[in-house]
Amino acid sequence: MPNPSSPTPASADASGLALIVGLGLTQVIGYGTLYYAFAVLAPQMTASFGWAPEWTYGGFAAGLLAGGLVAPVVGRLIDLYGTRLIMSIGSALAGLSVLALAEARGPMSYFAAMIVLEAVATMVLYDAAFAALTQAKGSKARRSISQLTLIGGFASTLFWPLTTMLLGQFDWREIYRLYALLHFVLCLPLHLLLLPGRVRSPAHAAQAGPAGHADAGGYLQGDARRIAFLLLALAFSLQGFVVSAMSVHLLTLLQGLGLSAAAAVAIGAMVGPSQVAGRLIEMLFGTSLQPVTTAWTSALLMPLGFALLLAGGPAATLAGLFAIAYGVSMGLGSIVRGTVPLQLFGPAGYGAMLGKLSAPGLVIRAAAPLAFAVLVERAGQGPSLLLLIACSGAAALALFVLARKVGAAA
């Protein structure tokens, strides 16, 4: 007879759905309040402090740098203590750090709040959420990761217009105080109620095979594992540079190519829905592909999109095709950031592995907006686009090499 204490398939499906929906809501709130709201509020923050914009964006960059430094530590803590404890503490700290930002009155308090805020973000955003799904579902978490990123993709779609609307009624400090409450009232209870507690690392079914080969569970070991890690870290870092630069300079770049401000905004608005469309396609039809195959094919869309933009210049049609290719690539990139490490390295030590992989990319993301702005000013639009093509193309090449090596080691 079945064990009455064991969950039935229906109850397991219900709990799994609740976990994905709950985590999806916290990801929308997390990215919306800790990341996307800043782009809308930064001009008013600059005016309020009465300093140059470089100070405002410099604090954000310092925060991203801090996030890159603490990401490996957060990953190890997740593996040791489980995502329920770490993400719940992260939600409380996120609320406090947003409140601290709202109360900042000068450069010291502003920089301190931004550094803590972006460091704490590593405890509650995608990498931590992917670890939660992996702790709950083990090696079968791929579909859940796709579903989660599908929900999380609406963060910018919701919070950019919401923050803009609120800015018509409140100042930036009041908006951040309101957003802090979301972490206390919604994110913290959801993390406490839904997330798995401390999870013991699964025992290996067999000893690792010879260096350079997969173990009995299909996960890479030895030299193959080290090479795969380096290729993934390189690809994620290069893509991080491109995405971070474009998150600040996309509209400026489009206008610099000759598009009107209205056309640039319309084309930029296509990126978000394209991300969601790419994630939906992967969720519905991508399960037959290996994650490493999805990784390099989706990464290839990014340099192709930039090449269309370079060739088309002010042509709105080609710029629109760029936005679609770039958005789909970004959307799928969020998924493979969680699924490829799971495929190659397994669920054991997953949190620490994601932390190590994301650390160099977060550091590079911190420097990307300023570095790209200097390049555009000194060299112009054409060379700047060529750099984006080179970086995103090198990332796609690294993922293609990885896919070939994984096939050879299998």
Summarize the structure.
With 410 residues, the chain is mainly alpha-helical. Helix content is 81%, strand content 0%.
Task: Give structural notes.
The chain is mainly alpha-helical. The protein has helices at 9-49, 53-81, 83-102, 107-121, 126-137, 142-152, 155-167, 172-194, 222-256, 261-269, 271-285, 291-312, 316-345, 350-379, 381-409. It folds into 2 domains: 15-194, Growth Hormone, Chain: A; 222-409, MFS general substrate transporter like domains (Growth Hormone, Chain: A), CATH 1.20.1250. It has 15 helices and no strands.
What labels would you give this structure?
Growth Hormone, Chain: A; 410 residues; mainly alpha
Give the SSE layout.
Elements: H1 9-49, H2 53-81, H3 83-102, H4 107-121, H5 126-137, H6 142-152, H7 155-167, H8 172-194, H9 222-256, H10 261-269, H11 271-285, H12 291-312, H13 316-345, H14 350-379, H15 381-409
Helix pairs in contact: 1-2, 1-5, 1-6, 1-7, 1-8, 2-3, 2-4, 2-14, 3-4, 3-8, 5-6, 5-13, 5-14, 6-11, 6-13, 9-10, 9-13, 9-14, 9-15, 10-13, 11-13, 12-13, 12-15, 14-15
